[in-house]
Hints:
Layout: H1 2-9, E1 13-14, E2 25-26, E3 31-35, H2 43-51, E4 55-58, H3 62-77, H4 85-96, E5 100-106, E6 112-121, E7 124-125, E8 129-132, H5 137-151, E9 156-160, H6 164-168, E10 172-174, H7 176-186
Antiparallel strand pairs: 1-2, 3-9, 3-10, 4-5, 5-6, 6-7, 6-8
Helix pairs in contact: 3-4
Amino acid sequence: IPTLVSAYSQGVFPWPISADLPMAWFAPDPRGVLSYSSLSLSKSLKKILSKNHFTVTFNNNFEQVIRECALAKRNAKGPHTWISEEIILAYNQLHRAQYAYSVEVWNSAHDLVGGIYGVTVKSFVSGESMFYKESNASKVGLVTLMNHLQHHGIYWLDTQMVTPVVKNLGGMPIDRQDFMSMLKKSLTQPRPSDLFSVS
């Protein structure tokens, strides 16, 4: 746990390359960031959000979310997903120590159909991975997360990379130097006590 917390505090995160190679650490430049001020919602996504078809919770089932993310990566990219069993075990420990969180998206039948997990240190928050089983479920989770962070005075999310989903929502790459300035400022601010309490 101390190694991971220290790494994130320095803008570094683990990314296993394959089962045959040792754990690698990454600090991409540029860095993907989604800011609340640049959050952009399409008309169709606004319509989905207004219908309240999905229910979003926090920290209700961290392990299922990270395992669903791992399964989604394996289905998309083959058996050697970077979300290895080692990563799953380590981030479950982070979660129990309150350094990792999950966002769960449920449909009307109370099935888990989308989710996000990430890391939080002080008021720094990252989004590590997400999955969906129904269209737009992960987008609803991400938008809900951004609104939740903004409500608690946190105005940006470290997305590490700018994926198509992140880009469509207004995410953008920034220079590592700018990212590190934002990170250092976040680490000087305490995390709101109820930021990721179970909902």
